[in-house]
Write a structure and sequence with these properties.
single chain
Length: 434
């Protein structure tokens, strides 16, 4: 203990100063100037600062510039031109101000039919709930006066119909187009959406090689509730007669398998060069619709001799009259088609890409079945007899005629004939001897 009663400090502890000892102040380091302080202060003096009570500017003034006088606007979208006119109204090319994004705006022709308006509104509701790379996306809805407008993704390219009218589509690209269509339909069907108007006009091919299915304007939700349940209960048939399924002709109650039938018609047309059913203008659409219900489709090999039998089988199954006999899902249809496409045109999935080399995707010949090393196989090889190819489908619209049964010959009849021949030969020999 020290004299003050405090315990002694350890050797490592700093010694406390005595009462009469003055403590020298520690030198304070010089303060360094903040970097870029001069530039920052000069910049801040150039920015006007509003008073604290000033309210923030509205979002519309930031995202939507003021409209240019003399130009047409649909809502906040500036119209740049008309793309075309369809069954429900005109389609415009427009630009979304602020973002500079090109959009396609579809209007509804005003009519007294409330069902057309319900279908149009249903298209916006249905498509706004979907997000798939092979579906045209819906961005917005606009109401100007009493006219409804649907703002959609703009696809810079061409429709499948325009492409088909220009020239025949090579097999690799036909497979790639159908792959995108079936992927889009499978996604829509899994979300309880039926297209009801699947045709080449509603398939778009972008300049980048993307397949987009458009125009769900007459689609219907399969649960038959809300707008979807009332928009088709008018007794009228909705769709395009050239691509309508048998159940779509006979009744309005359809499901996703109806779209797969229509997609099969498109596939048939891509492969054969023409649809399976045709009718003249004098016949009218009802004759064409009746063929979908009653007439058997001609195999596509009638128009394309030598067509791959497995490919023909896939197409014919998609065109079955009964929905139960077709592919049940778009994924099942796509899987069957892709399996044949991989054998016929390797690399077909990249055929729509810009600059794709289609010469490397030519159809390959089916490998021949090896002849077994047996006496029969050696004899076939020496005689030059080849292995027969699978039987080819032949179109026969008339029912087969039942062959007439031939009378069988009994054993006794054969013995009697042989006895007669022997007797005649014996008589001839005896006559020659004598």
């Amino acid at each position: 203990m020290t004299e003050s009663g405090q315990p002694p400090l350890p050797g490592w502890a700093p010694k406390q100063p005595q009462d009469n000892q003055q403590v020298e102040p520690r030198p304070t380091p010089a303060e360094e100037p903040a970097p870029f302080a001069g530039d920052y202060n000069a910049t801040m003096r150039l920015i006007p600062v509003p008073p604290p009570a000033t309210p923030p500017p509205p979002v519309a003034s930031i995202t939507t510039p003021p409209q240019v006088p003399g130009e047409r606007y649909i809502g906040k979208y500036r119209v740049r031109g008309q793309l075309g006119r369809g069954g429900m109204g005109a389609v415009y090319l427009a630009e979304q101000p602020g973002l500079g994004r090109e959009v396609a705006i579809k209007e509804l022709i005003q009519s007294a039919d409330p069902v057309a308006l319900k279908r149009f509104l249903q298209e916006a509701q249905v498509m706004a709930r979907t997000s798939h790379p092979n579906l045209v996306q819906v961005h917005d809805m606009e109401l100007q006066g009493n006219v409804n407008y649907l703002v959609m993704e703009f696809i810079r390219g061409r429709s499948l119909r325009e492409w088909m009218n220009e020239k025949p589509i090579p097999p690799p690209q036909a497979f790639a187009v159908m792959h995108g269509v079936l992927q889009a339909l499978d996604y829509a069907h899994r979300h309880a959406i039926v297209h009801r108007d699947m045709k080449p006009e509603n398939v778009l091919i972008s300049d980048e090689g993307m397949v987009k299915v458009a125009d769900f304007g007459i689609a219907r939700l399969m649960d038959d509730t809300g707008v979807g349940g009332t928009a088709t209960k008018t007794g009228t048939t909705v769709g395009t007669p050239q691509y309508m399924s048998p159940e779509q002709v006979a009744s309005s109650k359809v499901d996703g398998r109806s779209d797969l039938y229509s997609a099969g018609i498109v596939f048939y047309e891509l492969v054969a060069g023409q649809p399976p059913f045709t009718a003249s203008e004098a016949d009218g659409p009802f004759t064409l619709m009746a063929k979908h219900v009653q007439a058997p489709p001609r195999p596509p090999s009638v128009f394309q001799p030598g067509l791959n039998p497995e490919l023909e089988q896939v197409i014919m199954r998609s065109l079955a009259k009964r929905p139960e006999d077709r592919f049940q899902t778009g994924a099942e249809f796509d899987e069957a088609m892709s399996r044949v496409a991989d054998l016929m045109c390797p690399g077909w999935r990249r055929s729509l890409e810009p600059g794709a080399d289609l010469s490397r995707m030519v159809p390959t010949a089916t490998p021949a079945v090896p002849i077994p090393v047996t006496p029969m196989g050696i004899a076939m090889a020496q005689s030059g007899a080849g292995v027969q190819s699978p039987p080819h489908v032949v179109y026969n619209p008339t029912p087969p005629v039942k062959p007439v049964a031939k009378k069988s010959v009994s054993c006794l009849s054969v013995l009697g004939v042989l006895a007669g021949v022997i007797a005649a030969a014996t008589a001839l020999v005896v006559a020659l001897i004598h």
